[in-house]
Specification:
It holds the Pfam family HTH_20. It is built from six helices and three strands; from the N terminus they run H-H-E-H-H-E-E-H-H. By secondary structure, it is mostly helical.
Length: about 120
């Protein structure tokens, strides 16, 4: 991941509703959720959620698939993994034992999805 790409992802996540949307969709991997269900679960107007979904999608954090009349959104876990690796790329200045707790915590997560290009 390059700096500009990381900045786009971090910028998209820096707004509270978008962060809530992303966290919600991470919890619903691998099925994802339709846009209307995202709005319902967050108790927010659907048009507002649509704007936030578009921002997250442009940042590469979400993918969408049309199923008849529904658009189902999924969190791009591989993009999240890339962002996290970018943030800790030079972790602990060559002392990997300092990063061991972080690595252990992250390794308990589900494997990254193949949803993203």
């Amino acid at each position: 991941m390059e700096t500009e790409s990381a900045l786009a992802a971090l910028s998209a996540l820096s707004q509270s509703t978008r962060l809530e949307i992303f966290q919600l969709l991470v919890r619903h991997e691998p099925e994802g959720l339709p846009a209307g269900e995202v709005a319902r679960q967050l108790d927010a107007p659907q048009n507002t959620i649509s704007v936030h979904l578009a921002t997250l999608t442009r940042a590469g954090l979400l993918t969408s698939t049309r199923h008849s009349r529904l658009i189902v959104y999924r969190a791009c876990l591989s993009r999240l993994r890339d962002l996290m690796l970018f943030l800790v790329r030079d972790c602990c200045a060559g002392s990997p034992e300092l990063c061991a707790p972080l690595v252990t915590e992250l390794s308990s997560c589900r494997p990254a999805s193949e949803c993203c290009p």
